[in-house]
């Protein structure tokens, strides 16, 4: 299916088969019920004459359809095609998920993308049939629907957590779009909420562990994060645990916790989903936290497409051994860039030690630990005496200066190729570092860490010629993870 057009017959076959590979790629709207569903909805498949297919939930809502309470479109994984393309609209969608439109409006969104608001609107209408404002509104509504269904958060808090400016606006928008108020939705979803709570009760923590082992207070709420199966839980969490920064993160093979502005988050695998426990003072950060956790865990990837492509190459035995392998992302793009620079030509354990010192020196202290320093904070910090070389400090300072000045955007607004060029212009950042940043922060599925000694050794041990790199496109980032995780 092309980005702008949906093949009706292909979509209908996917819906009839409840094919999970298409979950998040399109939505099925039923004209007789005025409800739209995920392709995996367990409800009886409607007749072909009564369905319409839409690329995005916002397109279905703009056409007058409301989300199904049974399959819950708010739990759909994202469309992996946008990351693969990495174009303007894909980056705009990432910024909207991150709450960018709520903070700065569509005009601010366009400024970050360095295009006019009119051009941005035209791109969205061409690709999705609706403008960016409609997409942002649908994201707010679906997050609110999840909060009303899965948590006991008061309706007033739900409104602000989802990005609405007032409770009145929240009530009016939900009634206009869905035909019922937030309170009415919560009343009808009570059974779903209770079932979710019972299922998670055995593993829901009474407290969220802080980055230094202290108790950070009661967990305010728990949300479910869904991705496509299979999902290599052990691989993702082990990767994150081996790189956890002291004072900022605590992780092992079954959980990941970190300090975030205003509180903490904890991620734990559950049956069929991942649980996100959030304890933050300002729930308006929730949309951003959810979006960044999804990218951290690579939940929107399409494991079937990746396995199909790589499984027909010299990597076939590795693909078979690690089904559902993911490329762990990052909670913050600048943070990942600093990790990459510090980690040049030293061990993972050595990098953790140095990063822990940077966090303790430059990061803001909270009741739960330290935050990772912002670009401005790192730029102002004294880094001498931490074990970093003079050249490495100069590289970090120049990186921080360019990010703080807006020349480099590592959180989704900048074209990945342009961001890599800007990174390579910094003395001390070479192809390996820039590629590693592209792989984890810029979400480029084809990024390959050029010159990585471990990758070279693994390929030599497996008798894989260098020219096979071209056969792994456009999934070379996943090929790298397969090789890194192979022992």
Automatic annotation (TrEMBL):
This is DNA-3-methyladenine glycosylase II. GO terms for biological process: base-excision repair, AP site formation; DNA alkylation repair; methylation. InterPro entries: Ada-like_dom_sf (IPR035451), Ada_DNA_repair_Zn-bd (IPR004026), AlkA_N (IPR010316), AlkA_N_sf (IPR037046), Alkylbase_DNA_Glycosylase/TA (IPR051912), DNA_glycosylase (IPR011257), HhH-GPD_domain (IPR003265), HhH_base_excis_C (IPR023170). The keyword Nucleus does not apply. SUPFAM superfamilies: Ada DNA repair protein, N-terminal domain (N-Ada 10), DNA-glycosylase, Homeodomain-like, TATA-box binding protein-like. Residues 90-188 form the HTH araC/xylS-type domain. Keywords: Activator, DNA damage, DNA repair, DNA-binding, Metal-binding, Methyltransferase, Transcription, Transcription regulation, Transferase, Zinc. Pfam families: Ada_Zn_binding, AlkA_N, HTH_18. Its cofactor is Zn(2+). GO terms for molecular function: alkylated DNA binding; DNA-3-methyladenine glycosylase activity; DNA-7-methylguanine glycosylase activity; DNA-binding transcription factor activity; methyltransferase activity; sequence-specific DNA binding; zinc ion binding. One of its GO terms (cellular component) is cytoplasm. PROSITE patterns: HTH_ARAC_FAMILY_2. It catalyses: Hydrolysis of alkylated DNA, releasing 3-methyladenine, 3-methylguanine, 7-methylguanine and 7-methyladenine. Its EC number is 3.2.2.21. It is an enzyme of class 3 (hydrolase).
């Amino acid at each position: 299916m092309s980005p702008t057009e949906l093949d009706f017959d292909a979509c209908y076959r996917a819906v009839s088969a409840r094919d999970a590979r298409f979950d998040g790629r399109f939505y099925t709207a039923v004209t007789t019920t005025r409800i739209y569903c995920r392709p995996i909805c367990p409800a009886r498949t409607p007749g072909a004459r009564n369905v319409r297919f839409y690329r995005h939930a916002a397109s279905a809502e703009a056409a007058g359809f409301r989300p199904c309470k049974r399959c819950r479109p708010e739990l759909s994984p994202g469309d992996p095609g946008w990351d693969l393309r990495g174009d303007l609209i894909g980056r705009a969608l990432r910024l909207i998920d991150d709450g960018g439109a709520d903070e700065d409006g569509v005009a601010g969104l366009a400024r970050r993308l360095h295009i006019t608001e009119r051009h941005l609107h035209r791109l969205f209408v061409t690709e999705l049939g609706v403008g960016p404002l409609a997409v942002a509104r649908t994201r707010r509504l679906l997050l609110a629907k999840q909060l009303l269904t899965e948590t006991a958060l008061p309706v007033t808090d739900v409104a602000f957590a989802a990005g609405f400016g007032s409770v009145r606006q929240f009530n009016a928008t939900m009634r206009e779009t869905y035909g019922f108020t937030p309170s009415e939705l919560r009343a009808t979803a009570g059974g779903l909420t209770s079932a979710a709570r019972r299922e998670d009760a055995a593993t829901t923590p009474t407290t969220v562990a802080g980055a230094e082992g202290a108790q950070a207070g009661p967990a305010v709420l728990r949300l479910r994060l869904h991705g496509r199966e299979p999902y290599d839980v052990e691989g993702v969490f082990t990767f994150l645990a081996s790189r956890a920064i002291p004072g900022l993160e605590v992780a092992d093979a079954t959980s990941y916790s970190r300090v975030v502005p205003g509180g903490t988050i904890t991620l734990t695998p559950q049956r069929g989903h991942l649980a996100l426990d959030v304890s933050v003072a300002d729930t308006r950060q929730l949309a951003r936290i959810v979006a960044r956790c999804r990218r951290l865990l690579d939940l929107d990837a399409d494991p079937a497409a990746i396995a199909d492509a790589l499984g027909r190459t010299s990597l076939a035995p590795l693909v078979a051994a690690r089904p559902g392998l993911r490329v762990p992302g990052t909670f913050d793009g600048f943070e990942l860039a600093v990790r990459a620079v510090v980690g040049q030509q030293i061990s993972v354990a050595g990098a953790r030690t140095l990063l822990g010192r940077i966090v303790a020196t430059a990061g803001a202290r909270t009741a739960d630990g330290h935050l990772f320093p912002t670009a401005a904070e790192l730029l102002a910090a004294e880094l001498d005496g931490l074990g970093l070389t003079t050249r490495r400090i100069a590289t970090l300072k120049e990186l921080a200066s360019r990010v703080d000045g807006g020349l480099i955007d590592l959180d989704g607004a900048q074209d990945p190729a342009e961001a890599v060029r800007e990174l390579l212009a910094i003395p001390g950042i070479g192809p390996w570092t820039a590629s590693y940043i592209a792989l984890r922060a810029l979400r480029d599925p084809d990024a390959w860490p050029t010159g990585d000694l471990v990758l070279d050794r693994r390929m030599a041990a497996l008798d894989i010629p260098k020219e096979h790199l071209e056969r792994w496109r456009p999934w070379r980032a996943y090929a790298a993870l397969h090789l890194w995780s192979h022992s």
